[in-house]
Amino acid sequence: MSASLIRRIASPKKAITGGLVAAAATGMVFAAAPAQAATPTTAKAAVPAAAPAAAPASAQAVAKQMIPDAAQYQAFSNIVAHESGWNHTATNSSSGAYGLVQALPGSKMASAGSDWKTNPATQIKWGLDYMNSRYGSPVGAWNFWQANGWY
What we know:
The chain is mainly alpha-helical. The protein is 49% helix and 0% strand. Helix 4 (70-84) packs across helix 6. The longest helix is centred in the N-terminal third of the chain and has 16 residues, at 12-27. It is globular.
């Protein structure tokens, strides 16, 4: 038996790594879309369809249904990703800001629904209303966020 064959047999790490890379390469597709400039127009909330009881929709899916304009959704998503990482129970330990959009105080979101602590759709509605009233749209809020690091 040759020394190189023994080394190949004795090196399972390379075999496993090669297999993982091959599996990842065949199972994953990466695509990038060119960035597009968005105009700050007021985003209108669409009424989300009811999710099946067995499979609750993710907060992102709910937001996409409520914000059908792609540019407005992307701006909203950028803010939420930075503020809470799409965690609807995220709490800022120093300020007390709460939820997807980090409302301060979180209880402000009660104006959108009594389930504001637990329902991402209620938080999205409140956040969208806030962004539209204060910045004109989610794109306007995102532009402000980029310039200031907060909104």
